[in-house]
Design a protein that fits this description.
1 helix; eight-stranded antiparallel beta barrel; Lipocalin; 49% strand; mainly beta
């Protein structure tokens, strides 16, 4: 009986820790070339999928719209632009969706996982995950 109580307590503690880490919220991304903060991205959940949109620009872009986009986001303002689409939660990771690089107008497959409570590892890739790059986003408090 005592073992069962300990196991139940541990399982409850683990589930509380996992639920404390939420992808939902505002995140600051960093420019790969300059190392400076670039934008604030808000990740939100709609039905069972996760999405992300630009809510603030921290660097002045060359164009205020997505001129290089080729889909429904073409020439849309960068503020409010949905750059993460159709991400699904599996374990401790978001995957299955795509991320947009507005500067290039290209979409990439994407996975997002926690480095710690306040830092995300965002991986965009083509084909397989080995062919891609990481960005690290920090939580905006």
């Amino acid at each position: 009986m005592r073992k069962m109580l300990i196991i139940t307590t541990l399982m409850l503690a683990c589930s509380v820790f996992v639920s404390a880490q939420s992808f939902v919220g505002k995140w600051k991304n960093i420019d790969d070339e300059t190392g400076k903060p670039k934008a604030i991205i808000e990740i939100y959940k709609k039905e069972s999928k996760y999405y992300g949109k630009i809510v603030e620009l921290l660097m002045k872009p060359e164009h205020p719209t997505c001129v290089k986009c080729t889909d429904d986001r073409k020439d849309k303002p960068l503020i409010g632009l949905e750059m993460l689409r159709n991400m699904t939660l599996g374990g401790n990771e978001l995957s299955g969706g795509k991320i947009l690089d507005p500067a290039k107008g290209k979409e990439y497959k994407c996975t997002i996982s926690f480095e710690n409570d306040d830092k995300l590892k965002v991986r965009g890739y083509i084909g397989i995950s080995l062919v891609g790059r990481n960005q690290y986003w920090t939580r905006v408090k």
